[in-house]
Design brief:
Layout (H helix, E strand, L loop, with lengths): L2 H13 L8 E9 L4 E10 L4 E3 L12 E4 L5 E9 L4 E6 L5 E7 L1 E10 L4 E9 L1 E2 L8 E10 L2 E6 L10 H9 L7 E2 L22 H16 L7 H11 L8 H20 L2 H9 L3 H6 L2 H18 L9 H11 L3 H15 L1 H16 L5 H24 L12 H29 L6 H19 L16 H18 L4 E2 L4 E2 L28 E2 L2 H11 L3 E6 L4 H10 L3 H10 L1 E6 L13 E3 L5 E3 L3 H13 L6 E5 L5 E2 L10 H18 L1
Parallel strand pairs: 13-22, 16-18, 17-18
Antiparallel strand pairs: 1-2, 2-8, 3-7, 3-10, 4-9, 5-8, 6-7, 9-11, 11-12, 14-15, 17-21, 19-20
Amino acid sequence: MKKLPLIVLFLFSLFTQAQIFEPVKWDFESKNIDEQTYELIFTATIDEHWALYSQHIDGDGPIPTSFSFEENTAVEFIGNVEESDENKVSKKDPLFDNILVTKFYKKATFKQKIKLKNTSTVIKGFLTFMTCDDERCLAPTDVSFEFTFSAEGANASKGDLGKEIEVDEAAVNTLLYGHSESKFQKSEIKCDNEVVSNASAAQEQGKSLWSIFGLGFLGGLLALLTPCVFPMIPLTVSFFTKKGGQESAGASGVSKAILYGFFILAVYLVLSIPFHLLDSINPDILNNISTNVWLNVIFFVIFIFFAFSFFGYYELTLPSSWTNKTTQGENTGGLLGVFFMALTLAIVSFSCTGPILGSLLAGSLTSDGGAWQLTAGMGGFGIALGLPFALFAMFPGWLNSLPKSGGWLNTTKVVLGFLELALAFKFLSVADLVQHWGILKIEPFLIIWIILFAGLALYLFGKIKFPHDSPIKKLSFPRLSFGVLVAAFTIYLISGFRVNKDTNTFQSLTLLSGLSPPVGYSFIYPKECPNNLDCFKDLKSGLEHAQNVNKPIMIDFTGYGCVNCRKMEEHVWPLEKIDSYLRNDYVLISLYVDDKKVLSENEQVHVKRINGGTRKLETYGDKWAHFQTQYFQNNSQPYYVLLSPDGKTILNNPVGYTPNEDEYAQFLQCGLDILKQNK
C-alpha cells in the first residue's frame, strides 16, 4: 500500500463523503474475423490504485468477473470468454484474509468468439464485476451490453438492464425496506466539530523494505551469538591484523578485513538474485507460492525441523565438498582469496545461520515486496554478520571486551529453537484460517504457545537440558533476567483465556495481534455478532426493534471480506467508550453487501439504478448494496449511518473507516445530541 495515494484519498474524502465510486469504465466493440465469425471485446479501464478481479477465483474471496448472455438461436458461442494476460497479477489479497487472487490493474481485456447464423441479430447480456483498492471493496456491479449486427455493419454499446421494465419505486422500497420514499430526510441540527470523513488515514499494510532490512539485521546479530559464528570473530580478525608480519600489520590487514566484511554481505545478497530472476519471468511468482495453503504447511514442517536442529539433536550441514573447494580458494591470495574466506564462513556456519535465513526467507515470501524484500532482509543480515569483522580489525583493542566463548552460545541456539517452534505454529494457523479447517482455533493455539514459552522459561531456569548444554553451577544475571521476562510473557499468554464478561469472548491479547487467530475463531465462544453485541442483519426487524425500545439506529454497511470493517469491529468497537454507546444507546443493524444468500422470490424485483436503467435484485448483497447507493449515494464499506428511532431521519454525517477512538465516539455522541434536540 503506497502512502501518497492513501493521503490523497483521505483528503479527497474530506470533501466528498457521500459519493458513488466508479473506478472501472467499460467499453465494448466487435472485431470481424471472417464472414461469419466475430470477436466480442470487453475492455475495462481501471483507475489508479484500484483492481478488477479475474474470472478465475476460487474459495470465499472476492466475486470474480463473469459474463451472462441472453439466449440467442442466431448465434453460436465458440468457447468461453477469454481474458488477456496483460496487466494481470496473482498475489495475496489483504482484503480477503491474504488468499491468493488474480486481478487486473489499469486495464483488462476480455474476448468472446462467436459465429453468426444470421447476419442481422442483437446479442444482449450483462457482466458482473467487483473492484477494490488497498482499503475497501465496492459491492458487485452489473453492466449490461448490446452488440448489434446487420447487413450495414456491426456496433456495440452499453445497454440498460431492464430498461423497458416499469418500476413502481415507492412500492418496491416499501417491500424491501419498509420505507416508501427513495431518500431519508436529514436533520438540520449540526454538532460542533462534527466528524465529516473517514477521520484518520488507514494504517499502512505490510512491511516496508526498511522494516525487512531491520529484521534481517536483527537476525544477523542473533547469528553472531551462535557457536558457529562467534568464535570465528577473534580468530579471523587476528589473522588479518597479523598477516604479512609485524611491519605490515596496519593498513593492508585492516583493508582486507574490511573487504572480508564486505564480501560476507555480498555472499548473502547474491543468494537473493535467483528470486529476482524468477520475478522477471513472472512478477508475482513469489506471491503465488507464498500464499499457497500447502506452502504454509511446508513452512510449519521446516521450522519444526530447524527448531530441533537448534536444540542439538542433529546439525544442518552443507556438503563437505563445498567447504573443501572454498578452502582451496583461500590460498589464491588477493581479493579472490578474501572472497573465498567469506564464502567459507557462510558455508561452515550454515548449521546456525540456515534456520535464521529460512525464517527470513519465509517472512519475505509471505509479504508483498517479493524479491526486493528478500534482498533487503539478506542485506541487513549480511551487514550485521560482516560489520563486526571489519570493526574489530580496525580497532583490535575491542576484542578484549568480548565475552569468552562458552555454554551461553549453545543457550542462545536453544532459545532460538523455541522461537522457531512458536513461529512454526503461526504458519500452520495461517493455513488453517485460509482453508477454514477449524483445527487451530484460538484455544489450541494459545495452549501450544503457553507450553512452548513455559518450556523456554524452565530451560532458562536450568530445569530442562538439551544434548549440548554445559552443567549450570550458577544462573547468570542475563539468563535469570531473560527467564523472568519469558515467564511473565507466559503468564500474559495465560491471561488470553480470561473471559471478557461484556463480550463473552476470550480477552484479546494486543501483543499477539497478527500472530494468533482472532478471538471470535473459537471452539468455546464462537460469535455471530462482534463483541457479543446484539445486532440485526435485516433492516426491517432492526427498525421494528428500534421503534419498540425507542433507541436510535446505527446502520453498519459492511462485508464478509472487508478488512477495515473487521479492524473497526475488533479494535475500535471493544473500547470501553465505544462499546457503551453500541451496547446501551444504539440499535445495531449490520448489512452485508457481499452476502450471496438468495432472496425470496417476492423480493427478487427490478429496481432503478442510480445512474439510469434498472437491475434485478437476486441476493441479499444486491439488496443492501442497492439500499446504500440509493439512499446514501455511497458504495464503499465500512460505512456507518445514524438514524432516528423511526428510521426516517439521518441524524448527522455518516462516516467510513474511523480508527481513532475519540473521533468515532464524537460521531456517536453527536447522533445522540441531535436526537435529544430534535425531541
